[in-house]
Amino acid sequence: MAEKKMKLDKFDIEILKVLQRDATVSMAELSQHVGLSHTPCWRRVKRMETDGVITNRVTLLDAKKLNLGVSVFIYVTLKNHDGNSLTSFENAVQDIDEIVECHTTSGDKDYLLKVIVRSIEEYEHLLKSTLTNLPLVDHLSSTFALKQVKNTTELPLNNGAVN
């Protein structure tokens, strides 16, 4: 069953653009920026929160300043592909803090993980002690990011993806 898509107008999209850049903006500033009075703007934000368009408001951290400068992308292939195996693997990765993203993928690899650690040595320890012991792992292929060329938390709301 397809998930119901919410209809968004130009005000909703502008609200989302502003909140993606700064979730701490006051409602007064937000309403002024998008050209609505306070109450209608607040109602739109609350509706988008209730409908799940706005899922969370977070504080973004600088990994390098926190001594977490090594990003590793790992392709994972599992031994089995039945529902229980996939669920078992997906549940196991939830408990590993260094895994900051986990995506199912198409093609000959089953998952793509993004891991953030302090050092290559820390990654090697994580690999040997934890990642190779994840349920039903057949093969892991790691790639280290050399430099981050682009980093955005903003979804591309200008390209017609909404509505």
TrEMBL record:
Residues 8-69 form the HTH asnC-type domain. Keywords: DNA-binding, Transcription, Transcription regulation. One of its GO terms (cellular component) is cytosol. GO terms for molecular function: sequence-specific DNA binding. Signal peptide: none annotated. One of its GO terms (biological process) is response to amino acid. This is ArsR family transcriptional regulator. It comes from Agaribacter marinus.
